[in-house]
Amino acid sequence: MRVLVISDVHANQVALEAVLSAAPSFDAIWNIGDTVGYGPRPSECLDLMTDRGAAPVLVGNHDLACIGDLDLADFNPVAQIASRWTSSQLTAEHRTYLKKLPAMTTVDGYTLAHGSPRAPIWEYVTNAAIATDNFACLDSDVCVIGHTHIAMYASLRAGQATAEIHRLRDGETLDLLQARYIVNPGSVGQPRDRDPRAAYAMLDTDQGTLTAHRIEYDIRATQRQMALADLPEVLIDRLAWGM
Ligand code: ZN
What is the pLDDT of residues 69-113, one digit of tens each? Predict the structure, then answer.
């Protein structure tokens, strides 16, 4: 099975549509969470997920905040503004959809968790020590995460005590049979690894390989939509920097 793996779409419909049309043919879409929050088209992005039959779709911290299931006090002021705006855009149907999503699940032997397998809503896997602790909490050999908006992977080979952590580069293919992996495909809608292109990955479950991709999209179009929605300028600007 060929799987399009996406995360942190953050209501960036232009980026999401670019990914959907750039990705080679696939049998499934796995979405690692934070489909909404920050961006200008939350309803459209959720509709695209249902229309395209994405499953599983995880819930992330921003999704939860937008439906009132997470305290906004945990967010910085601009994220709070964006979250309140997003909340005003969502229909009862969208809320019900988001409420039913898990923050972590297992599919075909792969663990999917928005933040980390140890703490799926909040933990950021940013270094080798955190990755090592998370391998200890992980039943599967491969876990896909999101949340940091940085394309990366942690690997733990047989006999190794601590995990290694690496950036995941455009076009790079991981042989998932060689080690245990925690992989973050990066963010579709708000990359933060100084590469503003939308990030996604293609997973081949028969071959046991995962390939990372970056794709250009019309950043200015998303920025114009955000300006019209009066979303905070700092959130508009950061899309161009990939930060
Ligand atoms: Zn996010």
Answer: 998 888 999 999 999 999 999 999 999 999 999 999 999 999 999
Q: Which residue has the tokens 């925690």?
A: 182
| Spacing, Cα 179 to ligand 1 middle (Å) | 27
* CA 64 – ligand 1 centroid, Å: 11
pLDDT tens digit string along 118-130?
999 999 999 999 9
Q: Do residues 103 and 58 lie in contact, with contact meaning Cβ atoms separated by under 8 Å?
A: yes
Strand stretches in the chain, DSSP E: 2-6, 28-31, 104-107, 110-113, 142-144, 152-156, 164-167, 173-175, 180-184, 198-204, 209-215
Could you tell me the pLDDT band of residue 205, with boundaries at 50, 70 and 90? very high
State the distance from the centre of ligand 1 to the C-alpha of 169, rounded, in angstroms: 19
Query: How many CB atoms neighbour CB 123 within 10 A?
Result: 19
107, 142 contact by CB (below 8 A)? no
Q: How far is the CA of 33 from the centre of ligand 1 (A)?
A: 7
What domains appear along the chain, each with residue ranges and CATH number? 2-241 (3.60.21.10)
Residues measured by CB to lie within 5 Å of ligand 1, the ion:
8, 34
